[in-house]
Amino acid sequence: MEPDMMAFARRLNQASQGERERLIRSGVAASHIQDLVETMHVSSERLLSMLNMPSSSVRRKIRQGVMLSPEHSERVLGLVCLIGQVTVMVEDSGNPNEFDAARWVGEWLERPLPALGGAKPSAYMDTTTGQKLVSNLLVQSQLGVFM
Predict the structure, then answer these.
(1) Bridge partners, residue 29, by sequence
(2) DSSP bridge pairs for 67
(3) pLDDT in tens, 68-122
(4) Locate the Antitoxin Xre-like helix-turn-helix domain: which residues (predicted)?
(5) Domain containing 114: what range?
């Protein structure tokens, strides 16, 4: 992930709920979708499907250089926050060198997990509740708690 995007992901993960809410309400630039595609090494189609966002309107917003709706901004920021969470977890473990958190998240989201009944975490990225569930699974895995 690009250094500025990594810094943003880390800051977002550590931001207060009020700060996140302000970002959501002000909207996220649609171009952040392309940034995520590149840093996570996933296709735009896969990312938009994961976030349950309409491809045609998102592409139009990217071309026009406008902001996403608060609903779509929340989904994008939730995913960025997840990348920030993984970044902090790896830094806390003491071995962050050469680790690409965004790429790892992109791959991990596509792995079926027993804790999700064999579902992929990517199936939960389209709602705030689902994103929190996935975030909690990461915390549990770091603590060695497996369901």
Answers:
(1) 67
(2) 29
(3) 999 999 999 999 999 999 999 988 888 777 889 999 999 999 999 999 999 999 9
(4) 20-80
(5) 3-143
